[in-house]
Amino acid sequence: MKDTDDSGRKKPHRIPIEDSIDLHAFAPKEAVSVVADYLEEAARVGYSEVRIIHGRGTGVRRQAVRAALARHPLVAAFADAPPQAGGWGATVVRLRRSGTATSGR
Fold first, then answer.
1. Gyration radius from the chain CA atoms
2. What Å distances lie between residue 51 and 2, 4, 6, 22, 81, CA to CA?
3. Which residue range(s) make up the domain with 31?
4. pLDDT tens across 43-96, in order?
5. Smallest Cα–Cα separation from 100: which of 84, 66, 76, 69?
6. Whole-structure pTM over 0.70, yes or no?
7. How far apart are CA 35 and CA 38, in angstroms?
8. Does a structural domain hold residue 49?
């Protein structure tokens, strides 16, 4: 299977949608767009709650992810994951049902 399309551009990788995503596999500058795409797909396949693993580090990626979550219309609520699921190195997100997204929280 080729890694490029007919025009020579790299083909996007298809990642199966699960109830969590680990952002360590993505460049920091891609984190916000990856999270937005992930939330759309997670809601589409029927998840009502997902976990985003952003890591502890300096907190920069966590802040960017949470700012994106606060603006995303599918997000009903979010909080630190429980200690056994990553604590403040991950965020648990409760999703609105598709079709019930509103601009308010």
1. 15
2. 32, 31, 36, 9, 7
3. 26-95
4. 999 999 999 999 998 889 999 999 999 999 999 999 999 999 999 999 999 999
5. 76
6. yes
7. 5
8. yes
CATH code, 88? 3.30.1370.110
If we measure between CA atoms, which residue out of 45, 28, 42, 32 comes closest to residue 74?
42
Structural element, H or E, at residue 51: strand 49-53
Give the count of beta carbons closer than 10 Å to the beta carbon of residue 69. 19
**Angle (CA) 63 100 86, round 5°:** 35
**Count of domains for the chain:** 1
11 φ/ψ angles, rounded to the nearest 5 degrees:
-75, 145
